[in-house]
């Protein structure tokens, strides 16, 4: 019942409505005029979510906590039930996390999130390589440009932050590189090499790992669906096989009866003569 399309659609509609309510609460004019209504709607929607989680707990019991998405829903709704006053006042802002339940309800969003989680091991290696590249480049930049441009390359930390900004291609040309080139004309060799390695190569590798993980996650979902369909189709096939065996036994018994009757009929005819 809880997995029915209508129920899932109603939950998605409630999540979107809750997102609108939480957004309106950030506007002072809306809060001053409709504050009571917005708070009431928020509490009603929260009560529906709690009731839905309770039904799922009753239906699935301990199996509920074996599903990562069910645990995610449980934590998100549980945060909303914690007191939002005193030292826990920050939790009031975390109510908006309820909107993230869309990820667990919408299959396409769940697939993307699953792919990102599955990509974490591969991303760790890519991130490690990027850190090494940034560290080596930061040491070189501090040695080369730190004396003339202490604000950007004065220390190892400042150089790393500046190179991170360059890696994002944010104001790297007119804001950083061209002023440095006025003092060091050949500085472009260092910066162009760094951008080619860190941005156009490593970040594309980063994206490739994520895409590959998403494709693998999608393939696993297809295999699981096919296995489930095969399992569901096995029962009807077994029933048909059992019925065919029963019909074969009945035909064999009927053939035996007919054979017996055929052997009895000539004897009866001879006796009549």
Can you describe this structure?
With 273 residues, the protein is mainly α. The protein has 2 domains: 5-105, Four Helix Bundle (Hemerythrin (Met), subunit A) (Up-down Bundle); 120-221, Helix Hairpins (Orthogonal Bundle). The protein has 10 helices and no strands. It has helices at 5-24, 28-60, 68-81, 101-105, 107-118, 120-145, 150-153, 156-167, 173-183, 187-272. Helix 2 (28-60) crosses helix 3 (68-81). The longest helix is centred in the C-terminal third of the chain and has 86 residues, at 187-272. The chain starts with a helix and ends with a helix.
Write the layout of secondary structure elements.
Layout: H1 5-24, H2 28-60, H3 68-81, H4 101-105, H5 107-118, H6 120-145, H7 150-153, H8 156-167, H9 173-183, H10 187-272
Helix pairs in contact: 1-2, 2-3, 5-10, 6-8, 6-10
């Amino acid at each position: 019942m809880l997995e029915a399309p209508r129920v899932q659609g109603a939950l998605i509609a409630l999540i979107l409505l809750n997102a609108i309510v939480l957004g309106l609460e950030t506007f002072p004019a809306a809060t001053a005029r409709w504050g009571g209504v917005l708070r009431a709607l928020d509490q009603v929607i929260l009560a529906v979510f709690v009731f839905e989680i309770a039904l799922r707990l009753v239906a699935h019991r301990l199996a509920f906590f074996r599903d990562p998405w069910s645990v995610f829903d449980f934590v998100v709704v549980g945060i909303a039930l914690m007191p939002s006053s005193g030292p826990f006042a920050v939790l009031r802002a975390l109510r908006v996390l309820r909107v993230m339940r869309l990820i667990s309800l919408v299959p396409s969003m769940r697939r993307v999130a699953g792919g990102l989680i599955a990509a974490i091991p591969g991303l760790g290696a890519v991130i490690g390589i990027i850190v090494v590249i940034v560290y080596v480049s930061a040491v070189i930049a501090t040695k080369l440009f730190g004396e003339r441009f202490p604000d950007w390359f004065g220390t190892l930390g400042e150089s790393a932050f500046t190179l991170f900004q360059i890696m994002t291609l944010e104001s790297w040309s007119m804001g950083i590189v061209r002023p440095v080139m006025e003092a060091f004309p050949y500085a472009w060799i260092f910066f162009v090499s760094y951008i080619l390695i860190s941005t156009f190569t490593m970040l594309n590798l980063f994206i490739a790992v994520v895409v590959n993980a998403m494709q693998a996650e999608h393939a696993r979902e297809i295999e699981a669906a096919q296995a489930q369909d095969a399992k569901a189709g096995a029962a009807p096939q077994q029933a048909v096989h059992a019925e065919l065996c029963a019909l074969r036994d009945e035909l064999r018994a009927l053939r035996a009866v007919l054979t017996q009757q055929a052997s009895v009929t000539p004897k009866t005819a001879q006796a009549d003569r």
